[in-house]
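Forum: Protein Structure Q&A
Topic: Joint prediction for protein chains with partners

I've read a bunch of threads here and the consensus seems to be that you should model interacting components together rather than docking separate models afterwards. I'd like to see that in practice. Below is the full input, 865 residues plus whatever partners are listed. Could one of the regulars post the assembled result?
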Amino acid sequence: MRRFAELYAELDASTATSAKVEAMATYFAQVPAADAAWAVHVLTGRKLKRLIRSGELRTLAARASGYPEWLVEESYSHVGDLAETIDLLLDAPLEARDELSLSTWIEQRLAPLPSLDEAGRAVRLLAWWSELPHAQRFVLNKLMTGSLRVGVSQRLVVQALARVAGLDTALVAHRLTGDWTPTPAAFRALLDPAGQLAVDVDQPYPFFLASPLEHAVETLGERADWLAEWKWDGIRAQLLKRDGAARLWSRGEERLDGRFPEIEAAAAALPDGVAIDGEILAWRDGAPLPFTALQKRIGRLKPGAKSLADAPVVLLAYDLVEDAGIDIRTSSLQERRARLAQHLATLPAGADAAIQLSPALDGDDWQALARLREASRERGVEGLMLKRLASPYQVGRKRGDWWKWKVEPYTLDAVLIYAQAGHGRRANLFTDYTFAVWDGDALVPVAKAYSGLTDEEIGRLDRWIRAHTLERFGPVRSVEPHHVFELAFEAINASSRHKSGVAVRFPRILRWRTDLSIRDADSLDQLKTLAGG
Amino acid sequence: MTRPSDLVALTPEGLYCPAGDFHIDPWRPTSTAIITHAHGDHARTGSQHYWGTKVGAPLLGERLPGMTLDTLDYGEVRRFGEARVSLHPAGHILGSAQVRIEVDGRVCVVSGDYKRDPDPTCAPFEVVPCDVFVTEATFALPVYRWPPMEAVVADVIAWWDACAARGVPAVLFCYALGKAQRLLAELARATDRTVHLHGAMLALVERYRELGVAMLPTVPVSDSARGRDFAGELILAPPSAAGSTWMRRFNNASTGFASGWMRIRGNRRRRGYDRGFVVSDHADWPSLIETIRATGAQRVLPTHGNTDALVPYLRELGLDAEPLRTDFGSED
Ligand SMILES: [Zn+2]
Ligand SMILES: [Zn+2]
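Posted by a regular:
Agreed with the consensus. Here's the joint model:
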């Protein structure tokens, strides 16, 4: 654990990705495979099983520190990270005495925690906290509270592993996709120089992600070299059909099996050994339903007849990455789409409603496409996707071949009414804001946003919030209605779950409108007009 | 709200003593201003007549050029109207003071900014018994506990050495008054290498040297020829220089910030420094509690920072505590 805590500190201290990759590569090369496997597991954001409730941890922190629980809470809301708060509240020995390995800590000390009673957990935690120096204790707490969040993405971990093994990053990325079990054997398999893909039948391919188009569309060259599609606002997913069974994976690499029975049933008619990349949408009469309809489906593990009827789903297929059991990602998009279309054409009636080809848009030239894009909103899409027909299916966000060309967002002027301290990087500053618009004489909350201000503005607003708090509800403060902000958002839907009756998607702060008074803010009626009702 | 028995009250100009008709560290111009120390949130321009410590006078001179200043030695008593007033070391920066006010046998002490950790650049904090204690509260949460200075010095030296080994400059940001000089004095125990200084620090470091504080040798960055390679050098600069064009001369520099705020990882990450060194010129939580108890004050008025947790905590300890809303900053 000492060695892993050092790695954590190195990753935390450096802002340069090259230094992070370097530090991880050194670590992976030095430590036993059992430790490296767990390090890969937690650094790629995979969690440990829940070991202890956060409430129990706080009570123990109060006991260990001798401070009342409310003061532990106050400290936590200031720091924004429970693992760190506990570490900061307690004294620690300066010298390291801990020589247990990371895998021993996780497998032999942490894993049994849930099976103990509270008293048993207390004895262990209080002992560990008093024995471990700061760096290790902090990492221990991090492991117990869930996520490590040390500014390392799966992509960087893959780069480090690829460097250690002298392998291509795409190969390592693929080996690490899906359910990956942190065992020494699995770690050695990641680095296996044989270059063979021992693909598990359940394993999806790493997704190829598009980048936002930031320059004029004409700079892409000939229109004829590109496939244009709608940019659908659903869940990106991969549908695998192998060994006679269907598996559905989300982009977040979560199994979606059981949630969308329409798609799985349709997959039965697909040939074996195919992997389709597409987007799941709630769909009726040839058009998407609002994202909120899909949201209701995501949470349902075994949807009943009513929810199947209320929000039927479709997989709009973009791409084919495996065909006849062979990885075809290096062939051209044109070739892959042709094969995809062939497979979909053979689907029987019924199945062809649940899995459809995401249509290619006509538009002879860029201008025609630009006009289509203008109509995105009426169609319930976010804009266009532009994909180079000659492009292979790459791994992760690689610029150049796939672009998302989104419509400009909606904007609204809204009043700041609640604030809450942020987490992580913005702990102990009020950075999470709730905004309201006018409904008659009342301000009703319509959006939460926490990005878009500069650090200087955040600091200024934080001081203002502290001085103008009206009421405190736990970590949330209500503030005097005074400041107006221009917010951008991607879509707006009618919503019965929100007090305002509308839900805005992906709101973010465009600018602080110090030139406006709260009377200039928008009204709920204006918003509802945008929502089309 | 303050009471008459507190001996001090808030006016739009700042903290005011009615019995002595003077303000302490006013943020707007007044007739008589007693200044605890030369930091910008305490020493503001525009008042007619200033009082401060004798040892701190040269620093106040840097901050308030051309003002009328009278000085007191630490412990020297002077009458202001009905009030007997004296200044006592606060251990914050060179010349920093607490203000002791006595009226009819009742004593109020205004701490100004203070710390209890040893500091080779200034006189140590003196516990002044009192009935009413106006205490700062910049770091008033129990997560703020300062590591021993020797450990921090060792960290800074190790970072400097690592930068030298990598062939990059080490730029350490810190406040120009107090923190910079304290670091230069503490580092002198571990090394005798020369440190490069940002222009905003030159005069203040000079004043400290004139006042007899031993520090590492320093040279102004501006003395170096254009295009000079600062690989392996330590450079001190105020936080305002971070991200400025001034930084361009330090190729691939590793950056650090020396401040009590660096105790929290989120602060470190938000500001984007490579390294955070926990060094503060304010009292940490254990020092605040210990000091408040040591004064024997039954009435405590926390101000200057985060009073949200300190006030209820002091009440749980049985003290009569109330927050005082002032206009002081949170620099460290
Ligand atoms: Zn100060
Ligand atoms: Zn101050």
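Residues 111 and 223 of chain B are 40 Å apart (CA to CA).
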